[in-house]
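idk why but the lab printer keeps eating my pages so im just putting this in chat instead. protein + alpha-D-galactopyranose:
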Amino acid sequence: MAHTAADRRRIAMIRQFCARFDAPPTHLSRAPGRVNLIGEHTDYNDGFVLPAAIDRAAYVLARARPDRRLRLYAVQYAAEATLDLDRLRPDVVQGWAAYVAGMADELSRADFAIGGADLLIDGDVPQGAGLSSSAALEVAVGAALLALSGHPPDPVALARAGQQTEHRYIHVRSGIMDQLIAALGRRHHALLIDCRDYRSEPIPLRPDVAIVVCNSKVRRELAHSGYNTRRAECDEAVRLLRERLPHIRALRDVDMAHLEANAERLPPPILKRARHVVSENERVLQSAEALKRGDIQRFGALMNEAHRSYRDDFEASTPEIEVLVSTAQGLPGVYGSRLTGGGWGGCTVSLVATDQVEQVCSRIAATYEREVGYAPEIYVCAASDGVTVQPLDADQQHS
Ligand code: GLA
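predcted complex ->
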């Protein structure tokens, strides 16, 4: 039988694993990247998001070790590392290995006994593009470590450990959307997630509408500092609003009427950040309703509004992103287009009629190249399942 691309990847990874660690792997874990359709910077405000897992993922081959070591090899970096499970601390290792250290540490702190392992890591989520390659890595590694130690899969525990890894090991105060969708994604569906209680509802995506992701290839230089600053500004908005509205716990508890009535209490930039988050929560709920009705026109209009708010009130866009979004929004066949992910570069997401995808992609690429000076990368993404861990049988181990 002909090998699929996934078979070929697995076989190549298994060969490298055996050569490096002198024994075959027993498990293959896979966790996807994500594209957020709408709901930006709402997650850490206890609000709503509507992401989809994509058909690009982090892959981890794993085998238990009898000692307390994690031996690691990252194919994409051609780099190895060894960690001692009894000496995991932030800031000892940097880069990709810090994500693995963080997951092992955070799962242990959440009372999952984690044993030693050999792990070979690969992936095809574009890095630094706002498609959550790091959440994919965290969830894939965490799921492999849980499976090797005999724990049943626990998507919410994995997501929380991933978020804590971002906070303590990477020093980004991220929300929990990326890890939750990497753990819980559903094929052909977007997920409406309530980030206060982690409840989620899969909403079917229409087969005649494609998810087109355009990568500006702008390095997200400001991403870490800008992200943490915005989060602090949202906290400040809550602190000031609580003086009048003591019942609120997060911007999730504020509506536009509250905000307008108390606008004079907030310095102008803080008011703008709060206005983005409060209006964005409303848009997410409205867009989920539109998607359930199959009303993709309305959904697209809400995406366009969300972009305006993200650019003007949250001030997280860049000139290159504006070229991508304004070009897409002006093309026939495009329902809506916006900056997706943490902000300050990365990717846009557009919903496009499937029979117009080719024309739309080539027109966006041509305009971007003309105005920015180089070509964007464009991915037409399929909404995919969340994390899976597959035990490998003897045939697969030696394939
Ligand atoms: C990043 C964070 C998420 C979320 C988005 C913005 O992807 O990791 O938690 O806050 O930015 O919506």
